[in-house]
Write a structure and sequence with these properties.
alpha/beta, homodimer, 28% strand, FAD/NAD(P)-binding domain, FAD-dependent oxidoreductase (chains A, B), redox-active center (chains A, B), FAD/NAD-binding_dom (chains A, B), five-stranded parallel β-sheet
């Protein structure tokens, strides 16, 4: 008799795992049942802001594989609009509710893949029955916002609460659709994913686009009129608006797992080992936005909800479920984003992270250009490096620049991944031609500056 | 009394060395005399094709620092149009000829920095007194070609001989200026700096631009009429033309060094140690296009004449001359170029290099896109990886793609530099956002494919 894998959550991590398991084990060997609460499987949540802005025409573009594809081509029993409500580890069963037609099913499993993703952080004041308030996490969320933007009376003003990646991207999308947009951020700056000096460059670019930025401002409530949101209430008074988007981040969707007895780590994410097994529970796997992982530089557990990790972790879990061997050995916090024409990349630790992790370090900021200065289209590009002292080991890097800047963070990410020192890095053989960099690549210029900074500290 | 450093060659390597030495040793401690045969110091030879095409308006843009700047700001005795004709290691003197005013000077040195660069490869048939035949190595070469292109009767047809970086870039520059251009290459393909399958993509792009490509064709002579070049004679008959550009590569300009007794390696370049000292000759240094260096993957000496290496090597030599400690530990053959809108990057070994170096290997080619497939402006991008078997160590990588592709070679270059295996690489934490890559970065897709290829070979 075939063994049975049940997958909870049919997005990046869950479907990567299921696909890899199927690749190694045929339908006679492994039955695969997927429960997905929403309408979609395997889509690009990161693309939602570009659908809102109109840059991407429809949600179809964001769907990588539809449920029907998984059913037909991968022989999986994919049940959308089914929410798993309980996991019984003893009897090795899950209970799932059919959200559209009612009723419950119980299904047994041999292996269980928990990939329930993340849920938006939603403070008490955000609970409202008013129309016009949106999270921005699922394709269904995006769909709801799209509809609202063309509902009479058509919204003209928007408030985005939270200045992380999603908040910033949605603010830009709404400005591109012609709304008047205010971004409210409780901290001193939006885009705190990079250090303050770099974040200020991003804030400047956003203001240049016409986005109003209100920082250091706490939201305390929402006002409504005729069932529609009408204002965001803050410590400094109400901000009138026709639509509110919440971009306050997400937390692991692990409550069901916790209730079933899966171990939860300090970040709120499920604990897993390098093969994505839940420790102490044979046959139970977890991956994606619901788990915590190791930061390879701070050596501390972190929760980094990104599609790229979810896919890798799901793949690793699926290879292992399929009988192979694969490991996921942590992250270094690499991320890139585009804000207007400004590009922002980061990897490793920010200054505050390095301090929190107990590192002594120097940091340097180097100004350069994306191409040889004389080559048409050369744009300013700022590279920041953070290096441990006295060892010189790279701890973190950030890039802010215009076109052709952000993806260069990968060069630094690979250097960081391999534990290179900034002195090592000055020797790196990077590609040079006038359309791509000055003869001293911006990465090399920054590394040289860091070497000098380390020497200067030593001389003191 | 101050010691004296004499620098032979006032371009990238020589002036980097001189600047670094000056930074550490003041004028009372170290006198610096630079002899430069040409009119210029410290310019970007790599920018010459863009000046020819008109993309860069004038040669001034290509000059990084003029002789006057070095004299004034760096207290150096810079003598342009002075050719060193002899080195006397015994008496520690050089003899230099004033090319404009005649006469010779003898100057003593304590340290000698040999940075005479490279000279174009020029077969016997290329020696001609006809006008309209150009090398393309110095700013003076570029200047001569620029003048010729506006000399009546204005040239309409051009033949570029040699399909390396310079040949390809000049062919494009001339097509952009409206000439009818034929590229003649003795090998099967132009752009043999990448493997044949990748080079074919480049050849297609060049043909798309209207460049006629004649491969497998040997040039045997040049014809002239009224003192002007009129045809390139080949094994398949003459190709009529009004201008000929030679792009047959360069060799180390080491004859003077060899005559003086400096050791020459198998590539024809001067041998140096990791501090850029000439072995066995205290106080004698060499750097730049005239030296050979270690290829960190093949572990064989190579001659890679590139400004980026010349600058790094010069810097290392200058730090050491200045009393500091720095090393240059070899290259991995990273290079990028732009051919029309096509971008080409490479690092490490090509298949033929890997075979020559005795490696067993697999190679894979992965097709992907520069951005998420649904994001506007996503373009095709091809990544080729060569990995040692059975170890899986990355030996080489090549990228051909449209915008935003080539510089990604740096990610692979840093992985290669650190000796990563393709299996290690599948775990790399690279930046992901829809404007920059699919959720599986092209580099990761290629690494996964290489892992599969290694497993498939093992299964055989």
């Amino acid at each position: 008799m075939a063994q049975r894998l049940i997958v909870i959550g049919g997005d990046a991590a869950g479907m990567s795992a299921a696909s890899q398991a199927r690749r190694r084990r045929g339908r006679d060997d492994l039955e695969i049942v997927v429960f997905e609460r929403g309408h979609f499987t395997s889509y690009s949540a990161c693309g939602i802001p570009y659908w809102i802005s109109g840059l991407v025409p429809g949600p179809e573009q964001l769907i990588i594989r539809a449920p029907e594809t998984f059913r037909k081509d991968f022989a999986m029993d994919v049940r959308i609009r089914h929410e798993v409500t309980a996991i019984d580890l003893e009897r090795r069963e899950v209970v799932a509710r059919d959200l559209d037609h009612g009723g419950e099913v119980r299904e047994r499993f041999d292996d269980l893949m928990y990939a329930a993703g993340a849920v938006p952080v939603k403070p008490p004041w955000a609970s409202t029955d008013a129309d016009g308030v949106f999270g921005m996490q699922t394709l269904d969320d995006g769909s709801a916002l799209r509809d609202w933007l063309v509902t009479e009376p058509v919204p003209r003003r928007a408030v985005v609460i939270g200045g992380g990646y999603i908040g910033v991207e949605i603010a830009e999308a709404l400005i591109e659709r012609g709304l008047s947009v205010t971004l409210v951020e409780q901290a001193d700056q939006p885009m705190s994913t990079v250090d303050g000096d770099m974040a200020e460059l991003v804030a400047d670019a956003m203001r240049g686009l016409g986005i109003k930025i209100r920082t250091g401002l706490r939201v305390t409530g929402l006002e409504q009129r005729d069932g529609r949101v009408s204002a965001v209430v803050t410590a400094e008074g109400p901000i009138p608006t026709d639509v509110v988007v919440l971009g306050l981040g997400v937390r692991p969707n692990a409550s069901l797992a916790e209730a079933a007895g899966l171990p939860i780590g300090p970040t709120g994410g499920i604990r897993v080992d390098r093969r994505m097994r839940v420790p102490g529970l044979p046959g139970i796997w977890a991956a994606g936005d619901c788990v915590e992982t190791l930061h390879r530089v701070s050596l501390m557990p972190v929760h980094v909800p990104l599609g790229t990790h979810a896919n890798k972790q799901g793949r690793v879990a699926g290879i292992n479920i399929g009988g192979g061997y694969a490991t996921f050995t942590g992250v270094i916090g690499t991320a890139v984003t585009k804000v207007c024409d400004l590009e922002v990349g980061r990897t490793g630790l920010r200054e505050r992270d390095a301090t929190a992790a107990g590192f002594d370090f120097v940091s340097v900021v180097a100004e350069s250009t994306t191409r040889a200065g004389y080559y048409p289209g050369a744009r300013a590009m700022t590279v920041k490096l953070i290096a441990e002292r006295p060892s010189g080991r790279l701890l973190g890097a950030q890039i802010v620049g215009w076109s052709e800047a952000a993806k260069r963070i990968d060069t630094l990410a690979v250097a960081l991944w391999n534990g290179m020192t900034v002195d090592d890095m000055t020797a790196l053989d990077l590609g040079y031609a006038p359309p791509y960099s000055p003869v001293w690549d911006p990465v090399l210029i920054a590394a040289r500056k860091a070497v000098d900074a380390l020497a200067a500290v030593d001389d003191r």
